[in-house]
Design a protein that fits this description.
CATH architecture of the largest domain: Alpha-Beta Complex
Shape: globular
Structural class: alpha/beta
Distance between the termini: 7 Å
Bound molecules: guanosine-5'-diphosphate, 6-O-phosphoryl inosine monophosphate, magnesium ion
Strand order of the largest sheet: 9-7-5-2-10-1-11-15-19-20
CATH class of the largest domain: Alpha Beta
CATH superfamily of the largest domain: Adenylosuccinate Synthetase, subunit A, domain 3
Helix content: 25-40%
CATH topology of the largest domain: Adenylosuccinate Synthetase, Chain A, domain 3
């Protein structure tokens, strides 16, 4: 079972970092294939808590080779900061490989991210402000800067000039900001080159050779299905393919090499930033989920929007990604509720929909149709076997399994590395 994709099945923050970390000791490579430092993964190892943004969570496991593949956008200053922070806590990060083809986030991408959001006013996306969207826009516009450009000062200068030409007009004339000097950007980027050089590789080749040699490679998605630029709630999405297809284009490993797709799904739902969210709660139940689940952004610290589990969203994710196994996280957060509603379909302007509607306005109007399940009050955080969970907790999991489009192979019962109930081996 050598190539495994792990992706978010909702709107992010499902616990992908913890799931990757759980598999870490059994994999040889962990690959980040999309997004950048907009991601925020919190991993709890013993008493230590790690917050990772750009680096794949596999970096916490000794012996694993972490890879930042071509589909990622890299803020190099953030990269070095994150590496330094891990080194200061005694971790070995020397194996990290970065694709020569990955694109670079520069200061002008960060600036443009912030000013364009401000200009959108009520139509704001609520981005993380890290320059992700503008860096991907430059990639698609063919004016992006790639990691390999940092090793040729002439090419770098030409490319930065080309990229800033239009942008400075825009910044000065439309957004009323100062122009950004080519030299400033070029000097900053060249200053990173020496430290970066030993990490840069043809990662597509490395990964294919690793698979040929029978190694196990885990592809760790950032963001999630409903934030995918093609399949998510556009325009309230991130600017990359966070679905399993992105693992192929974002890494240079062909789709027919993937053996398994693991979807991470929370036992309820959260979302950060703007956009439709049918099961969102505005009452004390929503506050309960936020408090009990500690739902505050790892990257921006924003309180996350909270709501009940949405089965059509899970089925949609199962279909778009080809999910073979779900990991259901944060079941423990629901402990203490008398009854747990689950969305099984939508009422959209008087018409029943069983699946996520293709029309975005319909999704904005979707009113959830709920089925209620009885809750449990026993503490489940120390449970390691499915049979030892309270009957109502087991029934809740089995009900979700029936309506979510794939089997639930593991269940998170607490933030710690070991707080997990495994029903089916995820790599077996
Ligand atoms: P990611 O972006 O998908 O990696 O998820 P985040 O790290 O942003 O958010 C998930 C949060 O839930 C983290 O703080 C994890 O420590 C925590 N977490 C993961 N699994 C569980 C679980 O089963 N129970 C509880 N209570 N917390 C969990
Ligand atoms: P992880 O990997 C939750 C959201 C932002 C915003 C939209 C676009 O931790 O699950 P961007 O900065 O990407 O252009 O913002 O996407 N967003 C996330 N929400 N988890 C994430 O990552 C996210 N990454 C981006 O809040 O609504
Ligand atoms: Mg997160």
């Amino acid at each position: 079972m050598p190539a495994i994709v792990l992706i978010g099945a909702q709107w992010g923050d499902e616990g992908k970092g913890k799931a990757t970390d759980l598999l870490g000791s059994r994999v040889d490579y962990v690959v980040k294939f999309n997004g950048g430092n907009n991601a925020g993964h919190t991993v709890v190892v013993g008493d230590e808590k790690y917050a990772l943004h750009l680096l794949p969570s596999g970096i916490l496991t000794p012996g694993v080779t972490p890879v930042i593949a071509n589909g990622v956008v890299v803020d190099i200053e953030v990269l070095f900061e994150e590496l330094d922070a891990l080194v200061s806590r005694g971790l070995d990060v020397s194996r990290l490989l970065i694709s020569a083809n990955a694109h670079v986030i520069t200061q002008y991408h960060r600036t443009i991210d912030k000013v364009t959001e401000r200009f959108l006013g009520k139509r704001q996306i609520g981005t993380t402000g890290r320059g992700i969207g503008p860096a991907y826009a430059d990639k698609i516009n063919r004016v992006g800067i790639r990691i390999q450009d940092l090793f040729d000062a002439n090419i770098l200068r030409q490319k930065v000039e080309g990229a800033l030409d239009q942008k400075n007009h825009l910044l000065v004339k439309v957004y009323n900001r100062r122009a950004i000097a080519v030299d400033e950007v070029v000097d900053e980027l060249l200053g990173y080159a020496d430290r970066l050089r030993p990490m840069v590789a043809d990662t597509g080749l490395v990964l294919n050779q690793a698979l040929d040699a029978g190694k196990t490679v885990l592809f760790e998605g950032g963001q999630a299905t409903m934030l995918d630029v093609d399949h998510g709630t556009y325009p309230f999405v991130t600017s990359s393919n966070a679905t399993s297809g992105g693992a192929a284009t974002g890494s240079g490993v062909a789709p027919n090499r993937f053996d398994r797709v693991i979807g991470i799904v929370k036992a309820y739902t959260t979302r950060v930033g703007a956009g439709p969210f049918p099961t969102e709660l505005f009452d004390e139940a929503g506050e309960f989920l936020r408090t009990a689940g500690f739902e505050f952004g790892t990257t921006t610290g924003r309180p996350r929007r909270t709501g009940w589990y949405d089965a059509p969203v899970a089925r949609y994710a199962a279909r778009i990604n080809g999910i073979t196994d779900f990991v259901l996280t944060k079941l423990d957060v629901l402990t203490g509720l008398d009854a747990i509603p689950v969305c099984v379909g939508y009422d959209i302007d008087g018409v029943r929909f069983d699946e996520v509607p293709v029309n975005q306005s319909d999704f904005h109007h979707a009113v959830p149709i709920y089925q209620e399940f009885p809750g449990w009050s026993e503490d489940i955080t120390g449970v390691t076997e499915f049979e030892k969970l309270p009957k109502n907790a087991r029934d809740y999991v089995l009900a979700l399994e029936r309506i979510s489009g794939s089997r639930i192979s593991a269940i998170g019962v607490g933030p710690g590395r070991d707080a997990i109930v495994v029903r089916h081996d995820l790599l077996g």
